[in-house]
Amino acid sequence: MRDSRSGNACLQSPRDELNRPDAAAGPQWRAGLDEEYADLAKRLETLVPCLEIPLHLAWIDAIQRLKRERGALIMAHSYQSPEIFHGVADITGDSLALAQAAATCDSDLIVMCGVNFMAESTKLLAPHKRVLIPDPEAGCSLATSITAAAVRALRARHPGVPVVSYVNTTAEVKAESDACCTSANAVQIVEAMGTDKVIFLPDRYLGNWVATQTRVELVLWNGTCEVHETFTGHEARHTRETFGAKLVAHPECSPEVLAEADFVGSTTAMGRWLEREQPTRVAMITECSMADNLRNRFPRIEFIKPCNLCPHMKRITLPNIHACLRDLRHEIHIDAAVATRARAALERMLAVGRQEHV
Ligand code: 13P
Ligand code: SF4
């Protein structure tokens, strides 16, 4: 049965479910939603189960209205679920793009749909703005792999060697660092230190990959991303051989996986590579939502998904974005002394910018 006005088969009876008197507290379906969000519903149709679309639209509409009332800006990382990425975000991208946007945006209220270190970076770069995160438990295995005390100990062991830390770290760790980097500019930042040796932390796989691209010697830490470390070289080869797919991998994957990849780069660079190369079929070796969020941009490319979900990114949902905006809850606060030093490391990164093609 099709919806008589929008013609979208996904927008049928479940909306009646939304309006049941005993339905869980949440936004109600209102007349006209299907016409208002017809384009979005069409985009989501191929990305999320059909039955979920009316539920998502009711939340999306409520969030859009609250966002306008509050004058808020919503940022979403490329690993956010499609209903967030396509439905409510004003700015989307990799962690470098979000940091750059935080430094220049003109809204006084920012909701970061991503993990904690991203919300902290936003606050550091927009110190006079109110920054909220829908779920403060959204962490990152890399950020918890190292402490500020461990960075101080590393410096003591390698006197005079500068520290470059991946943005996937706490503000306290950034404060102990000379500069930050993301996967989009790691090689450039390491080389910008102007030394023969750099302490690079905390991701040992990203560090291994950077070491293959530069003559600078790197002292590495033993952190890993719990999502990317689970892909194996065997799995990558199997995907290529079985599906004849090109392989695009995030540099947080192991060296065995990266050796199989046709392209290695940040989440934004993956999209740029697809634009340039236009492969017939591609496997995105990274978080699952990445392929979903790119699929609409590349309708002629077939996406294979040997992907893993990031449990931290997936803590962010439409209901908790709505609650965070409604109650202005989960605001990010950073100790002033830590913030000053951490901001300097981030600003040094922003001064260098983005590396071509990654
Ligand atoms: P990007 O810097 O490519 O956005 O990646 C961040 C991240 O957390 C990847 O796991
Ligand atoms: Fe952290 Fe990995 Fe999740 Fe990225 S995908 S936020 S590195 S745990």
CATH superfamily of the largest domain: NadA-like
Low-confidence stretches: 1-6
Strands, count: 12
Structural class: alpha/beta
Amount of helix = 40-55%
The chain-level mean pLDDT equals 91
CATH hierarchy class name of the largest domain: Alpha Beta
Q: How much of the sequence is in beta strands?
A: 5-15%
Largest sheet: spatial strand order: 2-1-3-4
Query: What is the level-2 CATH architecture name of the largest domain?
Result: 3-Layer(aba) Sandwich
Could you tell me the CATH topology label of the largest domain. Answer: Rossmann fold
Helical run tally = 17
> What's the N-to-C terminus distance?
46 Å
Q: What is the approximate shape?
A: globular
- Structural domains: how many: 3
Q: What is the topological layout?
A:
Layout: H1 14-18, H2 33-36, H3 38-45, H4 53-70, E1 72-77, H5 82-85, E2 91-93, H6 95-104, E3 109-113, H7 116-125, E4 130-132, H8 148-157, E5 163-166, H9 171-175, E6 179-181, H10 186-192, E7 197-201, H11 204-211, E8 217-220, H12 233-243, E9 246-249, H13 255-260, E10 263-264, H14 267-277, E11 281-285, H15 288-295, E12 302-304, H16 318-327, H17 336-352
Parallel strand pairs: 1-2, 1-3, 3-4, 5-6, 5-7, 7-8, 9-10, 9-11, 11-12
The protein binds 1,3-dihydroxyacetonephosphate and iron/sulfur cluster (SF4).
Residues 115, 140-142, 168, 225-228, 252, 287, 310, 312-313 line the site of iron/sulfur cluster.
